């Protein structure tokens, strides 16, 4: 068996198959048969949506963004149809195809995983079939500006990168982790609590903020900051006229046991159960 000829036939088949299939996905975005959510989706709480429903709604929110993806797919398709432009075409193809593959598995998009995996593997086959040329271009080719093109001082200073790069990683690691602990830290209250009598929902959120929603209503009627000590809790509501100012909304003793929260004020006792 002539392996080189077999490689040629398989390579050509993969090019044309990838170029043909991706056109169908591009037109599906243009004519909105993809990324289109059904009317019933809009009445469902976001927490009840499946990965497929959530992904379709998110990407379908902006029609022009879908057009950008479709345009990229069409360009890669045209490039793949011609041997001379296959290299750039397959690189462009993989930039979105790998993301689609990861998204299909991460968000459990049933019915799409098999095709996404097939297209990605075929694209990798096309890419790696030309690995010598790609390796030469991306690795062996000299940089745009060589040492002889740069001032001597710049060549000497380039060694600083071996100090700068670790500092960047360490610096941002410390910065982001510090900001997370300060503004996104989760305490024992964090989450959604439902009043067992009125079904009002009390949301304890990041940065010690809260929101309260009445049953079956999306807009909150109270929001602001909360403070707590070992046994007392205070909700400070942001005023409508001056959001930066707060007024006491609720204050009392609390008892937190597992998924049950009891807040005892001077006038009443409020009982909540954790929803999430």
Describe this structure in words.
The chain has 8 helices and 8 strands. It has an 8-stranded antiparallel beta barrel with strand order 1-2-3-4-5-6-7-8. 48% of the residues lie in helices and 20% in strands. The mean pLDDT is 91. It has helices at residues 3-30, 51-60, 63-80, 86-106, 113-129, 131-140, 152-157, 161-183, and strands at residues 191-195, 201-205, 209-213, 220-228, 232-238, 246-257, 260-264, 269-274. Helix 3 crosses helix 4 (86-106). A hairpin with a 3-residue loop joins strand 4 and strand 5. It has 276 residues and is α+β, with helices and mostly antiparallel strands. It folds into 2 domains: 3-140; 191-274, Lipocalin. Keywords: Membrane, Transmembrane, Transmembrane helix. The chain crosses the membrane at residues 7-28, 63-82, 89-107, 119-139, 160-179.
């Amino acid at each position: 068996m002539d392996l080189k000829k077999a490689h040629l036939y398989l390579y050509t088949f993969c090019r044309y198959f990838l170029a043909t299939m991706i056109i169908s996905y591009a037109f599906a975005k243009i004519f909105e048969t993809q990324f289109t959510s059904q009317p019933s989706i809009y009445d469902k709480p976001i927490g009840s949506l499946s990965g497929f429903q959530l992904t379709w709604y998110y990407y379908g929110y902006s029609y022009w963004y879908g057009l950008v993806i479709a345009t990229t797919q069409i360009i890669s398709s045209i490039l793949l149809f011609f041997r001379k432009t296959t290299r750039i075409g397959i690189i462009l193809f993989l930039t979105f195809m790998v993301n689609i593959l990861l998204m299909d598995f991460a968000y459990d998009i049933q019915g799409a995983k098999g095709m996404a995996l097939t297209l990605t593997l075929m694209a990798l086959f096309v890419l790696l079939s030309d690995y010598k040329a790609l390796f030469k271009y991306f690795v062996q080719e000299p940089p745009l500006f060589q040492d002889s093109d740069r001032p001597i001082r710049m060549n000497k200073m380039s060694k600083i990168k071996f100090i700068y790069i670790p500092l960047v990683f360490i610096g941002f690691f410390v910065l982001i982790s510090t900001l997370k602990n300060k503004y996104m830290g989760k305490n024992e209250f964090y989450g959604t609590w439902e009043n067992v009598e009125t079904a009002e929902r009390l949301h304890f959120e990041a940065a010690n903020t809260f929101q309260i929603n009445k049953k079956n209503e999306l807009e909150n009627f109270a929001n602001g900051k909360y403070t707590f000590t070992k046994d007392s809790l205070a909700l400070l509501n942001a005023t409508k006229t001056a959001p930066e100012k707060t007024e006491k909304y609720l204050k009392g003793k609390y008892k937190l046991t597992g998924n049950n929260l009891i807040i005892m004020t001077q006038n009443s006792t409020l009982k909540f159960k954790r929803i999430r």
